[in-house]
Design brief:
With about 180 residues, the chain is α/β, with parallel strands linked by helices. It has helices at about 30-40, 55, 60-75, 105-115, 130-135, 150-155, 170-175; strands at about 5, 45-50, 85-90, 120-125, 140-145, 165. It has a single domain (about 5-175), classed as Rossmann fold (3-Layer(aba) Sandwich). It has seven helices and six strands. A six-stranded parallel beta sheet has the order 3-2-1-4-5-6, sandwiched between helices. α1 (about 30-40) packs parallel to α7.
Amino acid sequence: MHKAVFLDRDGTLIEEKDYLCKPEDVVIFPGTARALRNLQDAGFDLFIVSNQSGVGRGYFTMQDVEKVNRRLVDDLEAGGVQFRKIYIAPEAPGTPSRGRKPSPQFLLDARDEFKVDLSQSFMIGDKLIDVETGWNAGVRRSILVRTGYGAEVERAARENLARAIVLDDLPAAAEWILGPGLV
């Protein structure tokens, strides 16, 4: 069994931009590549789990999402980072969806496809639905980062975050995960 870190994309790995659909608009947060490489070097498989409702809303296409993801992956691969898989839920809110967060389905899929031990894995994101996805899948811990919408979520939903770890950004989350006695 493998341990994994599941990561939201927008607001966690890259700057949040309303309905990002252009690769040239991808801005990776400082320290992201190093943090991911440290997790990877410690034996964690890396996955991206992202809702992309702009597709379901008709704002852009799955091809646009794939181009943005390709840019992100290429930029991070230059720093030695490898993702096992990127899971995308393209449906708009309120429409039937197999994997739209907070559904744990994509984490369960990774468990089955890549032999991931969810009880030794982590979910990191900037929204309540991200941490709920981790809880719903039974990960070891869900982490809310204050980047993207995270600081706003922390202020507005503090009572809903009692079981979450709240940290400044992805590098802080990686440091916490890799801290003494946690790996």
